[in-house]
């Protein structure tokens, strides 16, 4: 396939490389020229704008920071829509508000561009391994067009429903993972403050109903104090803000998500925004009177 890729950061770069390595013809664009260079070195072509990418591909993928960035890429002055490519399938794999995804999709459809919202879970490790979970909203026809590309980037690929449904699934994912990371950090900090080896406590918990991938993987990273960013705290704070905005729009009570969102707000306020989300353990330690 002729595929375009916009956004070549921590997640986007390895995802794009997996497409290239699978034999797809790739055209890329990023705001910073240096972000494009690894892909150009690997055999991709470069473009000078999102419209320039859209003009030469059949499928276009974006992975950017938030809804305003998606809107700029898709609908801005040099955006995808300005390429006048009726029949193009545009896929945004960022994490944005479901309502924003629906609005962007509707505006693109007016230009003849079929839009999928397809956020991912799995972090940088999953992006590199091509094992992401991909949650897709949009038309069945567009999903089938994009499926070969999704299969290069992920293992668990689910067409959840209409436009915006992928973002709803991702918001639900962030509730579970955000609260899960906070809960594991809280449990390990509790063990340590009680004078018990948290590594032994984790080992015991892994054998019962408390088992989770978060306890297994992130729990070990917490014990190793490996806070190297795979998914930065400011990103999880942004995602939890999406959850709470959506809950406000729906008039819903999400008490666990609300508490988790407040903790990630505190992460940024404590200067931990650039560290991995599992550094929430540091925040709990500080609140308990311990030093980093």
From TrEMBL:
GO terms for biological process: organic acid catabolic process. Pfam families: NAD_binding_11, NAD_binding_2. Residues 164-284 form the 3-hydroxyisobutyrate dehydrogenase-like NAD-binding domain. Keywords: NAD, Oxidoreductase. The gene is glxR_1. SUPFAM superfamilies: 6-phosphogluconate dehydrogenase C-terminal domain-like (SSF48179), NAD(P)-binding Rossmann-fold domains (SSF51735). Belongs to the HIBADH-related family. Its EC number is 1.1.1.60. This is 2-hydroxy-3-oxopropionate reductase. The active site is at residue 170. PANTHER family: 3-HYDROXYISOBUTYRATE DEHYDROGENASE-LIKE 1, MITOCHONDRIAL-RELATED (PTHR43060:SF15).
């Amino acid at each position: 396939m002729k595929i375009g890729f916009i956004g070549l950061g921590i997640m986007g770069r390895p995802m794009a490389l997996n497409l290239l390595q699978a034999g797809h013809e790739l055209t890329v664009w990023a705001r910073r020229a240096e972000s494009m260079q690894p892909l150009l070195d690997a055999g991709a072509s470069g473009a000078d704008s999102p419209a320039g990418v859209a003009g030469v591909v059949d499928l276009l993928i974006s992975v950017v920071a938030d809804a305003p960035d998606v809107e700029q890429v898709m609908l801005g002055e040099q955006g995808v829509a300005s390429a006048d490519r009726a029949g193009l399938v545009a896929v945004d794999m960022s994490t944005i508000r479901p309502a924003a995804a629906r609005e962007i999709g509707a505006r693109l459809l007016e230009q003849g561009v079929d839009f999928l919202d397809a956020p991912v879970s799995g972090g940088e490790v999953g992006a590199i391994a091509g094992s992401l979970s991909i949650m897709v909203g949009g038309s069945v026809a567009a999903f089938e067009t994009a499926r070969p590309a999704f299969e290069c980037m992920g293992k668990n690929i689910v067409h959840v429903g209409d436009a915006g449904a992928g973002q709803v699934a991702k918001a639900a994912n962030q509730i579970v993972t955000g609260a899960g990371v906070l809960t594991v950090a809280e449990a390990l900090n509790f063990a340590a403050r009680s004078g018990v080896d948290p590594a032994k406590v984790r080992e015991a918990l892994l054998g019962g109903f408390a088992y989770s991938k978060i306890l297994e993987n992130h729990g070990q990273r917490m014990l190793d104090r490996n806070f190297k960013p795979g998914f930065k705290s400011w990103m999880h704070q942004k995602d939890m803000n999406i959850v709470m905005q959506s809950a406000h729009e729906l008039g819903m009570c999400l008490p666990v998500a609300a508490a988790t969102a407040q903790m990630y707000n505190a992460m940024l306020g404590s200067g931990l925004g650039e560290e991995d989300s599992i550094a929430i353990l540091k925040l709990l330690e500080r609140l308990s009177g311990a030093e980093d």
